[in-house]
Design brief:
Structural class: alpha+beta
Low-confidence stretches: none
Number of helices: 2
CATH class: Alpha Beta
Largest sheet: 4 strands, antiparallel
Strand order of the largest sheet: 2-1-3-4
Shape: globular
Mean pLDDT: 93
Order of helices and strands: EEHEEH
Radius of gyration: 13 Å
Length: 88
Amino acid sequence: MEYLLELKGITKKFPGVVALQNVDFCLQKGEIRALVGENGAGKSTLIKIITGALQPDFGSLFWMGQPVSLNYPWKARQIGIAFLHQNR
C-alpha cells in the first residue's frame, strides 16, 4: 500500500533529551489523524519534522512512496504540507 505520507524510524535528540525515538507514522490520502499526548511527549517535535522546521537525527520521510528531504518549511509547503496553529 502506498501512503500519502510515511515516516519510518524517526528519532530526534536534543541535549539531554530524546524527544522522539524510532517513530513510525503513516497517513493515507483523505485520512484525518489527531496527534495526542502529554506535555513533553514529542508532538510538536514530530509536527516540526513533518513540516520541515526541524530535521530528524535518524529515520526517513516518504511522500507518495518517494523519499523526501524536507529541509525547510517552504519545501514542505511545495508538496502541500503546512502547519496551522489551533488558535488561528
